[in-house]
Amino acid sequence: MSAARLTVVPLMTIEEASAWTTAEEQQQAALFGSEVRRREFLSWRAIVRKMLGRETQIAYNTLGAPILIGRSEHLSVSHGAGRVAVLIAERACGVDIERWDRNFERAVRRFLTDEERALSSDNDFWAVAWCAKEALYKAAGEQGLSIRDELRLLSYTGDHLTAKIKDGEVLTLSVLREKDYLLVSVS
Description:
By secondary structure, the protein is of the alpha+beta class. The protein is built from 6 helices and 10 strands, in the order E-H-H-H-E-E-E-E-E-H-H-H-E-E-E-E. It has helices at about 15-20, 25-30, 35-50, 110, 115, 125-140; strands at about 5-10, 55-60, 65-70, 75-80, 85-90, 95-100, 150-155, 160-165, 170-175, 180-185. Helix 2 packs antiparallel against helix 3 (about 35-50).
């Protein structure tokens, strides 16, 4: 695999996803009280297998993040806005998807520094910044990081952001804007 692959699709029905998921995964999903949660759980697993093959094994690491067993690729998933996003890359990666109508105003001081808030006066920036911080957190793969202070947004152009995890390399994040959702990814 040479480049990161991002797939964003509407949630599958349970029947559609069942063709690509294991009996154990279907039993786990059946325990969720919400049909939407069951569909999210099964949909992203089905997408991974459509991308990498039916035999692909999925587990969780000690932080609770999904991983691919016996493969070198890294995996990040997100679901929301009636969709599921799957990012598969050769290095640590992260993806977050959110509905546009989610209100971030009350949380903005907890996840953005004064310098980060000054990066843009764009009305959508808080949503973009939230998704960026979530994607960075997933890519960092480190428990206990301060989303506000250790995941730093450096610049914002509308379609891209640059950022750092702690004092690491400068990373470029991509912004995808659709009618009813926003997606930010880093790989």
